[in-house]
Amino acid sequence: MPDRTNPPQPPVAAPTATFAGILRPERLAEHVQLRRWPASPRVSHWVENYWSLRWDLPEGASFASEVLPHPTCSLTVERGDHPRPELAGEEVVVTGVVTRRFDVEIRGSGRVAGLRFRPGGLAALTGQSAKAWTNRTLGAGPIVSEAIVAALAALDLAGDVEAGTGAVEDGFPERAAQDARYHRVLRVVADMLEDRSILSVADLERRHGVSARTLQRDFLHYVGVGPKWVLARYRMHDVVEALDGGFDGALTDLALQHGWYDQAHFTRDFTALVGLPPSRYRRAK
């Protein structure tokens, strides 16, 4: 008979995010120390990785950090001379999926540490809908457990942040719930990342045997945005990564390779998200 008191844990998911998205990462590295480290098996059902930022700029200096965010929620503790206005006095916050370019002006000194959830991970953990967090930064108290909030607030951001993440993990459930819809979201997202030939939701329907309507419903609940948006964002990450890596071919070829059917639509989408046309972005490198 199966052991119903200790059901098997769901398998650890394949990677569901990359480290792409930072515009001109070499410039960020001149001003900000960025660290990333993997989540432990204890929480990896929900969490993709941990990360931290620290900076100490001289008085009067500043740097505009620009990021094309992932379809993920983050849980962070943030301290500094010039806190983000959207924190509204909170130190431990949840930031939902951001559908636009994420801009932060780096000034003075600051420290940030946090968890990047898998797409849908925070909704699966809390049972809440990610739609409520899209394009919002909220105090974490009403969303995650008091134990997680307290452990994040207690992190020594000036010291060894990684050493304190065990206490954060202690606030997570011992076992993940069996959630077939969340597992399907993870499989679909992992497929988007693994196979660059997937360029449309119709491709996902055929490969996973699920309707576009079901995918839309599941993604809106767990991720906070639809599957078409997620796929387009990952492909835009690929485009920016190629340009940052020195791609010097025709932009029309780059657009076609990543799912755009003509350069006009590609240029429009790139400009709307990044803030300047791809030709200018490449020249500014």
TrEMBL record:
It holds the Pfam family DUF6597. SUPFAM superfamilies: Homeodomain-like. InterPro entries: AraC_XylS_family_regulators, DUF6597, Homeodomain-like_sf, HTH_AraC. Gene3D superfamilies: Homeodomain-like. Keywords: DNA-binding, Transcription, Transcription regulation. Residues 183-284 form the HTH araC/xylS-type domain. The keyword DNA-binding applies. This is DUF6597 domain-containing transcriptional factor. It comes from Rhodococcus kronopolitis.
